[in-house]
Amino acid sequence: YRQLHTKETRLSKFNQTETKAMLGSYTKVLFVRDPFHRLIATFLQGMGITPSFSDFVQEVLDSGMHNSSMAWKPLVSLCRPCLIQYDYVVMFGFLRQELGHLLLRAGLPAGSLLPELTDSQVQWTYRWLSEQMFSELSAQQKKQLSRFYRWDLAAFPFSSSFLSD
Q: pLDDT tens digits for 103-127?
């Protein structure tokens, strides 16, 4: 399917038979991250030009599902996990462990190719940041965010997410 596939071709441009055959010929890896952590990262990277995290979250909520940026759009709407059977789902926060396994499965020497990842430090930092940022939000914003990301929270095991009920 290389001749049919170019950088600009979307999967939706192929018919069902071509899509199934093409996806079957690839190892499909999905990298997922807690949606609240994605919001924090986007805000900290300066994509949110508002002065406060609460204002940024309100912009996200006001943009709605269809006008939202890919930086904070729900993962389910971007990667279609209900339609595509991924071979691996790698959770941010467990990258060292999961990438090592993935490299071994691919027949590559995992130890020499992986950068030094300190997952426990990343998890602790995001836990602390999440607590700080979550406390800035109103009860209504918290409820709206949980609703905005409800399908991500249902599809992936983000059990410790601040957005989980």
A: 777 777 766 555 665 556 666 777 8
Cβ of 97: how many Cβ atoms within 10 Å? 13
Contact 74, 151 (CB under 8 A): yes
Q: How confident is the model at residue 3 (pLDDT cuts 50, 70, 90)?
A: low
Cβ-contact 157, 91 below 8 angstroms? yes
Instruction: Judge if pTM exceeds 0.85.
Output: no
- Give the pLDDT confidence score for residue 83 in this predicted structure: 77
134: Cβ–Cβ under 8 A, 6 or more apart, which residues?
Answer: 36, 142, 162
**What are the sequence ranges of the domains in the chain?**
11-155
> Using CA atoms, how far apart are residues 156 and 152, in angstroms rounded to an integer?
6
First to last CA, the chain: 43
Residue recorded with tokens 């490299």: 103
pLDDT at 137: 96
Question: What is the C-alpha separation between 12 and 18, in angstroms, rounded?
Answer: 10
State the residue for tokens 């790698």: 90
DSSP 149: T
